[in-house]
Design goal:
Elements lengths: L2 H25 L8 H7 L2 H16 L10 H17 L2 H18 L3
Length: 110
């Protein structure tokens, strides 16, 4: 057996598991109840997925030559985190992060 066979087996198995998980909410009868432990686990899915989506964009998008990460985006993300922690307001969070990023990109202090 080659490495390609194992790779394709993993890809197909992952696809099958994803299809079954998504289809279960459509195919199962309406009176089927989701167990409480699954409901408790699903509460945290969004909080677990969000950093996985945001972090690569913050660290590696528009990286200048010779740099490993985008320093301006990291600083803007930290300012946005501070604004979110202090205000608990999504608009203040977005505004603080965007204003910081735009300021740093326009003036290029370092």
């Amino acid at each position: 057996m080659t490495g390609d066979f194992y790779a394709w087996t993993i890809v197909c198995a992952g696809g099958a598991v994803t299809l079954l998980a998504r289809a279960s909410f459509i195919v199962l009868p309406p009176e089927t109840r989701v167990p409480k432990w699954v409901q408790r686990c699903l509460k945290y899915v969004a909080a677990a997925v969000l950093p996985a989506l945001v972090l690569p964009d913050v660290l590696f998008r528009d990286v200048a030559a010779g740099q490993a990460v985008n320093t301006y985006r990291i600083i803007a993300a930290l300012v946005a985190m501070l604004a979110a922690w202090q205000t608990r307001n999504i608009f203040a969070t977005l505004g603080a992060g965007m204003a910081t990023l735009w300021f740093l990109q326009y003036f290029r202090p370092f």
